[in-house]
Amino acid sequence: MGKSLNIGVIYGGWSSEREVSIRSGKNVLNALAKREYNARGINITKGNIKSVICNNNFDTVFLLTHGRGGEDGTIQGLFEALDINYTGSDVTSSALCMDKILTKYFFSSLSLPTPPYKIVDTKNALKEKQHFPVVIKPRREGSSVGVSILDDENDLRKYMKSYGNLSTEFLLEQYIEGREFTCGIIGTGDRAIALPVLEIRPKNKFYDYEAKYTKGMTEFIVPARIPDSLSSEIKELSLSAYRSAGCRDFGRADSIVSTEGEILLLEINTLPGMTDLSDLPMEAKAAGISYEELVEKILLSSLKRI
Ligand SMILES: Nc1ncnc2c1ncn2[C@@H]1O[C@H](COP(=O)(O)OP(=O)(O)O)[C@@H](O)[C@H]1O
Ligand SMILES: [Mg+2]
């Protein structure tokens, strides 16, 4: 199905994750070509987006744009308006999951467990009493940009001086000591399935930008070496969050299991990295799903909407 469609693989974009997106795009393009789909890659920029989308007459697009503009509902809205089918979550789910504050409201309203939090702006952060240590996060960034662990008021003051301009609002989350996991999901609604859970063990104090993008700075263990019952609980919680947020085709939910054994959701990524070395493809591989098969599954899941 879909072999005769004119498929655009859209990557690049203008967020800080542009380079990863290009790698994801090239890998996906390669996989689609191997499976004999009629796919063409488009490296989009703010300068060429209008012309390339209008000139190519795509029947459907495979979106691999990460971060701001590409994962937050913006580009999804463009394809909605043009009536072009696209892979991945729609405008609302993408915008919800990209916004760390809205995500907290969403988790809380459904009683999905997540670390306790507080919302501050640059003005009130230093006036109010905080319970350190906390993890501070700008409202709408990704890739751990601007994420930092603060041990005391002095750290908070220094942070605001250096990063206060990243956002008008910040999330202050209770720092959770524990182990970090991520669970990939493929499919939509009742058909969505969870892939084997992956443990992320960064060499740094947390999974920061350096640990994410420097080879050797993080150890990935998949399937995670944890009891089956814990792995099932992580999968169930991740699936529940993904389905409730209305996510589609593929995604990844990140969580921390505290030293007390409580699973706490951190976030849902609606457009996770798709390089052959990214988390989701690694998890698929552990489930016996090759990279090419994974790419095809995501595409076919999206084509059900045509
Ligand atoms: N409450 C927390 N306690 C401990 N570590 C955290 C907490 N929140 C985030 N982290 C660490 O920071 C990283 C990035 O946070 P996350 O909320 O996933 O933001 P991003 O969207 O930038 O990935 C996580 O992968 C984890 O290592
Ligand atoms: Mg994250």
How would you characterize the overall build of this protein?
There is one protein chain. The protein has 306 residues and is an alpha+beta fold. The protein folds into three domains: 7-88, 3-Layer(aba) Sandwich (Rossmann fold), CATH 3.40.50; 95-113 and 177-303, 2-Layer Sandwich (D-amino Acid Aminotransferase, Chain A, domain 1), CATH 3.30.470.20; 117-174, Dna Ligase, domain 1, CATH 3.30.1490.20. The protein is 34% helix and 24% strand. The protein contains ten helices and 14 strands. The strands form three sheets. Strands 9, 10, 11, 12, 13 and 14 form a six-stranded antiparallel sheet that branches. The longest helix is centred in the first third of the chain and has 17 residues, at 18-34. The model has no long low-confidence stretch (mean pLDDT 96). Magnesium ion is lined by residues 254, 266-267.
